Amino acid sequence: MNLTDQEYMLIALQEAKRAEVLGEVPIGGAVIVYQDEIIASAFNLREKLQTTSSHAEMLAIAKANDILGSWRLENCTLYVTLEPCPMCAGAIIQSRISRVVFGAKDEKAGCAGTLYNLLEDNRFNHQVEVTPGVLEQEASQLLTVFFKQLRLKKKQEKLEKNIKE
After folding, report:
1. Closest listed residue to residue 61, CA positions, set 122, 84, 121
2. What domain range is 147 assigned to?
3. What's the structural domain count of the chain?
4. Sign of the C-alpha dihedral, residues 69, 73, 77, 82?
5. For residue 120, what is the domain's CATH number?
6. How far apart are CA 153 and CA 145, in angstroms?
7. Is 126 marked as binding a ligand?
């Protein structure tokens, strides 16, 4: 297919929107590309599955492992809408993914350059090339709108509860 980083990120953003439809926080749309072909994609399912590891990156890595028949995802690029957290960054290193492209920075848990850069730390036996800020505005906007709507919904529910009492 040989798409650009922006085109792959648009696909990751579509994955994040699928999470939102299910009531999940649209913080994770992940796409893994190997030899110019998407081999795995996933979105955040933490609320639905109630498991800590149900981040989009973790789910996509597991799918890619199955597709390639290996725990090693060398020569793969991971596109993700939000900067990986420490757990996901660790899994990315362990899976030997070569490159990570992310959209929005994560000011609270980002481990690909914002709080810490786990992926490029040369003390580990594997480093990952990081390309930040691809379609950053679109990825950030998706989160901003989601949380604004969530706050409005909670405010409305509280108001309705107070009216009933």
Report:
1. 84
2. 5-164
3. 1
4. positive
5. 3.40.140.10
6. 12
7. no
Binding residue per annotation — 55?
yes
The pTM for the full model equals: 0.88
Annotated active-site residue 24? The verdict is: no
Q: Is 111 annotated as a binding residue?
A: no
Q: What is the pLDDT along the chain (165 residues), one digit of tens a residue?
A: 578 999 999 999 999 888 878 878 777 789 999 999 999 999 999 989 999 999 999 999 999 999 999 999 999 999 999 999 999 999 999 999 999 999 999 999 999 999 999 999 999 999 999 999 999 999 988 877 777 776 777 777 777 777 777
54-59 long-range Cβ contacts below 8 angstroms, 24+ apart: 55/28, 55/85, 55/87, 55/88, 56/15, 56/16, 56/19, 56/27, 56/28, 56/29, 56/30, 56/80, 56/81, 57/28, 57/30, 57/84, 57/88, 57/91, 57/92, 58/87, 58/88, 58/91, 59/30
Active-site residue identified among 15, 24, 57, 83 = 57
